[in-house]
Amino acid sequence: MARMIALTSNRIEEVARQTLMRHGVSHFSFWVLEALAKRENEKITPTQICEITGGKNANVSRRLDDLVRKKFVKRCDDKNSSDRRKNFFQITPKGVAVFQKIASDANNIQKIFAENLSEWDFTEFQNGITKIRNIIDLIEKNAKK
After folding, report:
1. How far apart are CA 30 and CA 11, in angstroms?
2. What is the spatial distance between Cα 40 and Cα 91, in angstroms, rounded to a whole number?
3. I need a surface site. Which of 19, 45, 85, 134 has the fewest CB within 10 A?
4. What percent of the chain has pLDDT over 90?
5. Rounded to two decimals, what is the model's pTM?
6. Where are the domains of the chain?
7. Mean pLDDT of the chain
8. Between 1.10.10.10, 3.40.1060.10, 3.40.50.2300, 3.40.50.1000, what CATH number should domain 2-143 receive?
9. What single string gives the DSSP state of each residue in the chain?
10. Which of 94, 86, 101, 77 is nearest to 21 (CA)?
11. C-alpha of 100 from chain center
């Protein structure tokens, strides 16, 4: 069963990776872009992006540098500070367009699932996943004893 779950998870992950790579972004870059897109008219700091995405400072900084290089994000530096954490970032119109294309692709994928899974199928899938998570919690709890 674990192998079946792992293989299915890997295939889903690969479809998502390929979808994102068509637009020139990684998963984590997408999360950074999403954080900025949801605050399109705001300038936010790398620290705020870390809090939103759960990412580490170094990873967020690398992703921001990459997104700036691709012109999806612009740096709005605080001229009075040499501390990069005090700089601000904002999504560009090009970044908004890419984010919207990725969101459209994701909606199309969800639509394919919805068209091919009945409500019952989806409910049973969710129930199965919940049961598996509960069993894993139980195994982890027993392993700590």
Report:
1. 19
2. 6
3. 134
4. 60
5. 0.74
6. 2-143
7. 89
8. 1.10.10.10
9. -HHHHHHHHHHHHHHHHHHHHHTT--HHHHHHHHHHHTTTT--B-HHHHHHHH---HHHHHHHHHHHHHTTSEEEE--TT---GGG-EEEE-HHHHHHHHHHHHHHHHHHHHHHHHS-HHHHHHHHHHHHHHHHHHHHHHHHHT-
10. 101
11. 14
Using alpha carbons only, how large is the chain's radius of gyration in Å?
19
Query: What single-letter amino acid sits at 26?
Result: S
Q: Which amino acid is at 75?
A: R
Interior angle at CA 134, CA 132 and CA 139, nearest 5:
95
**In the chain, what percentage of residues exceed pLDDT 70?**
94
User: What phi-psi label fits residue 141: left (phi over 0), alpha (psi between -120 and 50 degrees) or beta?
Assistant: alpha
Mean pLDDT throughout 114-143? 91
CA distances from 29 to 20, 70, 75 (A): 9, 11, 15
Residue type at position 7: L
Residue 113: name the closest of 99, 125, 103, 131 by CA.
Answer: 125
Q: What angle do CA 102, 70, 39 make, to 5 degrees?
A: 55
